[in-house]
Every structure is written in C-alpha cells, then in structure tokens.
Design brief:
The chain is of the alpha/beta class. The protein folds into two domains: 6-65, no CATH class; 76-357 and 416-452, Alpha-Beta Barrel (TIM Barrel), CATH 3.20.20.70. It has helices spanning 6-12, 28-45, 49-65, 74-81, 99-112, 124-129, 134-148, 165-170, 172-188, 209-228, 253-269, 305-319, 339-342, 352-360, 366-379, 390-397, 406-410, 414-434, 441-447, and strands spanning 17-19, 23-25, 68-70, 90-94, 119-123, 152-162, 193-197, 238-242, 279-282, 324-326, 347-350. The strands form two sheets. Strands 4-5-6-7-8-9-10-11 form an eight-stranded parallel barrel, surrounded by five helices. The protein has a two-stranded antiparallel sheet with strand order 1-2. It is globular, with a radius of gyration of 22 Å. The model is unreliable at 452-458 (pLDDT under 50).
Length: 458
C-alpha cells in the first residue's frame, strides 16, 4: 500500500487525474478503486513527508474537481434561526477509529437517503488520543466522499475546542493561545465549522448567573474574533458556543440569556458587527459516552426534553440562532431520537455509540481486541479509580486504543471491515430517518451553493 516515493505516486495517477493548470479527474471509476485507497492510506501512514503531503493534496484537488467542497453550515443555520427551515436535527458525527470505513458508511447512507445536512467532527480531546490532527481527519473524510461518489458541500467541524479549567487557572493566556493555535490549524485544514467550548470556565460559586458565565463569555468572544480574522474569502465559519458542561447540571433560560448578553457585549469590544455564534450547546442530562455500570453496560439516562425545547426556542426567537445543540446522545435508547426534531433541536452530537458497535461486534478479531485491552491495562492503569471494575475501566478507556494502534485498526481483515461497514451504514440510516434529515440534500445545496467560496483547485 505504501508508495515508494513521489514518482510511484505520480505514476499511479496516470490516466486517472490530470493537472494542467487545473486539476481534472479523467477516470472517476478508476480513482474510486484502488487509487483512492492507496492515496488515503499514504496520506495517513506514509513515513515520507513529501509523499504524505502529495497524497493529501491530490485528494483535496480531486475532490474539488468532482464537486466536493468543504463548507460552512452557517447559511443553513441562519435560515433555521429565521424559521425558514425546520423539522430536522442535524447529526454531527465524531469518528475516532476506523475513520475511512466509518465515513464511507455515512456517505452511503446519506446518498441513499438524499441527506445533505450531516456534519463530520472531531473534538480537541479526540485529536489527542486518536492521533488524528485536523489535516489528517479532513483528508480521510474527503477521500471517503470520493470513494462513495458523494458531491456537494462537505461539513467538517472542530467539536469541543475546549478550554481546560486547570490550565486556564494556571495561565489563562497560554491556554487561550493553545486554543487559537488549534483553531488556526483546523481552519487551514478546511474545517469551516468550529465549536468553542469554554463552558468549563463557568464558576457556579459566583453570586450571580452573569458573573458565573463571565469567563465563558469573554473567552468565547476572544476565540470567535480569532476565527473571523482567519476566514477564507467568501466563507463565514459557523461558530458554536456552550453554556453547560456536558455531564454537569442542566442548563436554564437564565444561563442562556446571561451568556448570550455577555458574549455579545464582549464580541462588540473586539469589533462592531462581528458575526457571533450560530448555535448554543446546553446540558440536558446526558454525559459523553454514557455512565458505565459495574458489568460494563450503560446506565439509562433521563433526558430533559422540555429544557431542550425551551432553550432552543429562546435561542431562535431572542437571538436568531439555529437553536440548542445536544451532546452525548449516541448511547441514548432508540425511542429518544424521534424527539429531537419534534423539539426543534438544531444539532445532535454522536460518537461513542459507533465506537461501541466496533468493539462489541461479534466479528471483531479477538486477538486484536486482546491486544488493545492489554495495551490499555498497561498504559492507562493510572486512570483506574478505586472500586471500578475492569469492565468499567475498559469501557471508559478503550477510546484511547485508536491512536497508538491506528494502523492495526486500519488493516483489520477486509471481510470484517465490510461487515462492520454495513452495520454502521444501517445505523446511520436509522439515525438519519429518526432525525428527519432524509431529503435535505436539495435544501442544503440551495442554502449553500457551490459558488459561495473560492475553489482553489489550481
């Protein structure tokens, strides 16, 4: 699979991709075969930096030539805020491992159901433990779009670009700079959707709700202004904010209003007329990944849909946002998903459930699972807390196996990758139908036209 230098890479593209001032795909069928498989693999695993860069650049140029373009979901969310578009909840999908196969499954389900409103995302923490920097993640998702014949706007998002309360307390400016550096890296990788999460800085010990939200407001405003200064010509990046840390107390209307009013005041200080956030993440009773019980199963969650609906309404009617965003939802019971579009939730974040499908599948090679779990027991031993069972520990830490053993996952037997791909595709189709994003492709193309950005193909 690895190219032995750039000449071999170039040779493999003969009769497939041509570049004469502008990139064109002359044999799309051949590109979608072994060619894209080798390009995506080398863009991740090549030890030759020049080959890796060339593979990624080739995928990016080929995607533009085929009508696949990275985009901001801002215009769709503006329309939702105005009430022109409604009735569905946009799924935002975090992919931690087996990224190429999982993204392919998303695209297959999306194409079959004419879904345009779907977001691919990766969080700051996930970038760390899955060893997927923004440029790599965008490369793999884009290659998957080529592989499956997807065309149109491609939404890639930085999820939970989260401030560390511990680091912020020690050195606020250093922590903000780290987030600014990550935002810059993500935008350069064509992430045109960025979720700023400074909800970790909310201080409930302060006397008023406004004071509790103050650090959250000014950090979010500072980072929003930073995003606006980095936007490519013709693109307004969709920025998200957050008022309630996931897994903590449920959010209130008072907190939403305190945050939005404070955030807007802070943003105005950084430039009159700067575009603010497009959506607001809140807490309604979920936690990331769910709460594992001693036997490794997940505790049932009581989700406050009334809070979700009420805060979504206030966000739209008072502030013109698309609505509220639900995190930590992939492990919810199946009957819960119908409620999100009914309650006009703007966006829902889904991650751990897909990871669980992979690890818990009967066909997952037992020797690989043992290798991963043994690795975790050794390398993550310090994370095990008193009274925690081995099942709880493994459930909590197995997401951290994806990075160090990335190539092991990537090269799982083809038969298993195909089978788990089919199951993931079925799951995505189920979610698309429940969230009512079927037949949204035409709406998305109408709101986010191809000529709304610089193509930069040449």
């Amino acid at each position: 699979m690895r190219y032995q230098g750039q000449q071999e890479l170039k040779k493999s593209l003969q009769g497939v991709i041509e570049s004469n001032g502008k990139t064109s795909v002359v044999d799309a069928e051949k590109l979608r075969g072994e060619v894209i498989d080798r390009l995506v693999f080398n863009g991740v695993f090549s030890e030759d930096a020049a080959v890796k860069a060339a593979a990624r650049d080739t995928v990016r140029r080929a995607a533009r030539a085929l009508g696949i373009y990275p985009a901001s979901i801002q215009r769709l969310y503006d329309a939702m805020g105005r009430g022109e578009v409604k009735g569905f909840t946009v799924p935002a999908i975090n992919i931690r491992g087996l990224t190429f196969e999982t993204a392919r499954a998303v695209f297959r389900a999306a194409l079959r159901n004419k879904v345009g409103a779907v977001v691919f995302e990766i969080a700051r923490s996930e970038i760390g433990y899955t060893f997927q920097r923004p440029a790599e993640y965008a490369h793999v998702v884009t290659a998957a779009a080529i592989k499956e014949g997807f065309t149109g706007p491609l939404f890639i998002q930085g999820d939970h670009f989260q401030a560390s309360a511990k680091n912020f307390a020690k050195n606020p400016q250093a922590e903000i700079q780290a987030l600014k550096d990550l935002i810059k890296e993500a935008i350069e990788a064509e992430f045109y959707n960025i979720d700023i999460d400074s909800s970790t800085l909310v201080d409930l010990s302060r006397p008023t709700v406004r004071a509790q939200q103050q650090d959250n407001c000014w950090v979010a405003a500072e980072l929003t202004a930073h995003v606006r200064g980095l936007e490519p010509k013709g693109i307004t990046i969709s920025v998200g904010g957050e008022i309630g840390e996931v897994g903590k107390k449920n959010s209130t209307v008072e907190e939403l209003e305190a945050y939005m009013d404070g955030y807007r005041e802070e943003l105005d200080k950084r430039g009159k007329g700067l575009k603010g956030i497009s959506k607001i993440s809140i807490q309604t009773g979920t936690s990331h990944g769910g709460v594992p019980l001693p036997d490794g199963t997940i505790a049932r969650v009581k989700l406050d849909f009334d809070t979700l609906e009420q805060l979504s309404q206030v966000a739209r009617e008072k502030y013109g946002l698309a609505g509220a965003v639900q995190h930590g939802a992939s492990t919810l019971p199946e009957e819960a998903f119908d409620h999100f579009p009914k309650r006009r939730c703007a966006e829902i974040h889904l991650a751990t459930g897909f990871q669980n499908m992979l690890y818990d599948d009967a066909g997952f090679p037992p020797e690989v699972k043992k290798e991963v779990y043994d690795f975790l027991r050794k390398e993550c031993a310090a994370e095990k807390v008193d009274g925690e069972t081995d099942e709880q520990f493994i459930y909590k830490t197995r997401k951290k196996g994806f990075g160090p053993l990335k190539e092991r996952f990537w090269t799982l037997p083809e038969s298993f990758r195909k089978e788990i791909g089919k199951k993931l595709e079925e799951r995505f189709e189920f979610l698309f139908k429940k969230l009512n994003v079927v037949n949204t492709a035409s709406i998305v193309r109408e709101k986010i036209p191809h000529d709304d950005r610089e193509l930069r193909v040449a």
